Amino acid sequence: MVKKIPLRKCVVTQERLPKKELLRIVKNNEGNIFVDLSSKANGRGAYIQKSLEVLQLAKQKKCLERALECTIPESVYQQIEKIILNEQ
């Protein structure tokens, strides 16, 4: 039997991709925003492709801010960038 690969939609490109190719950004009940590497944290999540081009688009178009309904601090974008660079 073939195992089903979970797909999620990138909030920037609107593409449906395997979860492994995406990063999950979470806003929890306390209003904290962080990168969820386990993909299991409670809260509202938004997925973004692991690419610097997509990250730049997300900043310009404020895609993550719209998806999570809040302002995203620069430190979160820097954290995402570090993770993307480490995986390349």
Q: Care to count the β-strands?
A: 5
The general outline is: globular
Instruction: State the major sheet.
Output: 3 strands, antiparallel
Q: How many domain modules?
A: 1
Mean pLDDT: 93
Looking at the overall shape, the CATH architecture is: 2-Layer Sandwich
Assembly context of the chains: single chain
Uncertain stretches: none
At the first level of CATH, the class is Alpha Beta
Number of helices: 3
Order of helices and strands: EEEEEHHH
Helix percent reads 25-40%
Give me the CATH fold name.
Hypothetical Cytosolic Protein, Chain: A
Question: Which strands sit side by side, in order, in the main sheet?
Answer: 4-3-5
* Helix/strand/pairing category: alpha+beta
The CATH homologous superfamily is termed YlxR-like
Range of strand content: 25-35%
Task: Give structural notes.
Helices cover about 35% and strands about 25% of the residues. About 25% of the residues are buried. It has helices at about 50-60, 65-70, 75-85, and strands at about 5-10, 15-20, 20-25, 35, 45-50. Strand 3 (about 20-25) and strand 4 (about 35) form a beta hairpin. It is built from 3 helices and 5 strands, in the order E-E-E-E-E-H-H-H. It is globular. It is an alpha+beta fold. The strands form 2 sheets. A 3-stranded antiparallel β-sheet has the order 4-3-5. Strands 1-2 form a two-stranded antiparallel ribbon. The model has no long low-confidence stretch (mean pLDDT about 95). The protein has one domain (about 5-85): YlxR-like (Hypothetical Cytosolic Protein, Chain: A), CATH 3.30.1230.10.
